[in-house]
Specification:
Blueprint lengths: L1 E5 L9 E4 L9 E11 L1 H8 L9 E2 L3 E9 L23 E5 L13 E5 L3 E3 L6 H4 L3 H14 L6 E5 L4 H12 L3 E5 L5 H6 L4 E3 L8 E6 L5 H4 L2 E9 L13 E4 L6 H12 L7 E6 L3 H10 L5 E5 L1
Parallel strand pairs: 9-10, 9-12, 10-11, 12-13, 13-14, 15-16
Antiparallel strand pairs: 1-2, 1-4, 3-5, 3-7, 3-16, 5-6, 6-8
Helix pairs in contact: 3-4
């Protein structure tokens, strides 16, 4: 099968399409025939060597939407029931989405097939195609797990930096759905977009110090954004270990996304209910993965670029 990998770190030109053996699912794993797989900034980091793996083949891709092609031992009967309908089990032909957490794995989701743990998968949203569904797992899980860390109560004030981005956009929608008052920080050209996602207020970065209960900092503003949190509030970043030190009683943390099929199933339902919007900026054939990386590197992408085998 074909897969996009790097064998030497570098820019977009480092991405190669190689032939690999078809991966086999082990116990409590499934093999997915990939229909679509989103390209994320973390893939650029993997490609550049930010997560290690020098001297070996490193796979690309964390998001996947596709069809169950094979199920390993116990995978059809031992999946946590909350990840599917009560009493359900995975079967060949099921349409799924999944997060394949990979830093230096030899294969990722940018391939024709991928193997994931069964409890990392969820039924795909029924109201969107696979290309759109592929944009859900990594970014929506990051957003909801960040909100879990912040734990704002209904009616609280939350400021989201980078609100027009993939993680930021999901965070705005999820928080607004929970009755949280969201202030979006984004470029002036993105005001209409972030307000359509549910932001009650918009700013390009002029924020009064200590004026919000919590900040989700997807734009990596760091200490500047920390100043906007009230005494005793909460701050969450998106790069583990890179959050600023606590001050004024403000809790600081950073989200490190983890696979969670049950939570992903909840997010898929929110897509079907119209709560979450899936944004696709463009599609590329798997063979054109290097071109997709080059477009991502140019910046200004709203939504996700998606690879289609």
């Amino acid at each position: 099968m074909r897969a996009a990998v790097v064998t030497a770190f570098g820019g977009p030109e480092a991405v190669e399409i190689v032939e690999n053996e078809l991966p086999e699912p082990g116990a409590r794993q499934m093999r997915i025939k990939v229909a679509a797989a989103a390209l994320n900034p973390v893939d650029a980091g993997v490609r550049a060597g930010a997560f290690g793996g020098a001297g070996k083949q490193v796979g690309l891709g964390w998001d996947v939407a596709g069809t169950v092609d094979a199920v390993g031992a116990d995978g059809a009967t031992s999946l946590l029931e909350r990840s599917r309908e009560p009493g359900g089990s995975w079967s060949v032909g099921d349409e799924v989405v999944a997060l394949d957490y990979g830093m230096a794995n030899p294969l990722g989701t940018h391939a024709e097939y991928v193997v994931v743990d069964t409890d990392a998968a969820a039924k795909a949203p029924a109201t969107v195609d696979a290309v759109h569904a592929a944009t859900l797992p990594l970014n929506a899980l990051t957003a909801v797990q960040a909100l879990d860390l912040l734990d704002p109560a209904p009616g609280a004030s939350l400021l989201v930096t980078g609100a027009a981005g993939a993680v930021g956009g999901f965070a705005v929608q999820l928080a607004a759905h929970r009755g949280i008052s969201v202030t979006a920080v984004a470029r002036e050209a993105d005001e209409e977009l972030v307000r359509s996602l549910g932001a009650a207020r918009f700013t390009t970065g002029e924020v009064e110090p200590g004026s919000v209960d919590a900040v989700l900092d997807t734009a990596l503003l760091g200490e500047r954004a920390l100043e906007w949190v009230r005494d005793g509030g909460a701050f969450v970043g998106v790069i583990p270990g890179a959050q600023p030190a606590p001050v004024r009683g403000v809790r600081t943390a950073a989200v490190e996304v983890s696979p969670d099929g049950a939570r992903l199933a909840e997010l898929a339902r929110l897509v079907d209910e119209g709560v979450l919007t899936l944004r696709v900026a463009g599609t590329y054939a798997l063979d054109d993965a290097a071109r997709a990386h080059a477009r991502l590197a140019e910046g200004g992408v709203r939504g996700r670029l998606v690879l289609v085998p």
